[in-house]
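Structure ticket #2291
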Amino acid sequence: MHVKDKPLNQYPIWLKPFFWSQKRRYGKVLKPGLLWARVPSLFAAVAGLYGVLDRKRSPINPVIRSLITVRVSQINHCAFCVDINAATLIKRAGSEAKVAELASWRQSELFDGLERAVLEYTEAMTYSDREVTPAIVEELKKFYGDDEVVELTGLVAFQNLSSKFNSALDVPAQGFCQMPQTNVQSGTSTDGPVK
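Resolution: structure written out below.
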């Protein structure tokens, strides 16, 4: 990592419940949380936004949310994000199949029309050499109303923020997902865990 986290006892006491919650949920405190928490008010803002986007009552179903977070993480080369989000996608989808084929989703038969529309929109927002066109939005609106499109857009934007932050600081995977890596562009597998 380019910036090291601090020992837990050096963070403000009001952040301790966040770290306790992460340890309870994931079995360990997450490295990105420790980095964001070096600026406590920034950590609180990011945690609040994430909580809104990943709430149980979100109109965007959990599998779609996870497809977005993994795909954005792959594109932005965030080892930590792919690791944790792929593990969440496997849990939500009930199998490793979609994670294994996500980088090559256009050639896969595993993804339905909604998922394809969401992934097309996600990639148009994430790749800097692409743009969201009216045709992409029109396809997305076959499945979602305006409020849902805004929330989905917020999630894609948030995951870009998160994965670019982690990638820039070289935050490593923490061992949540032990699938073979997939090349982001080609979809080909290599040895080693998902990054």
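Closing remark: Residues 183-195 have pLDDT under 50 and may be disordered.
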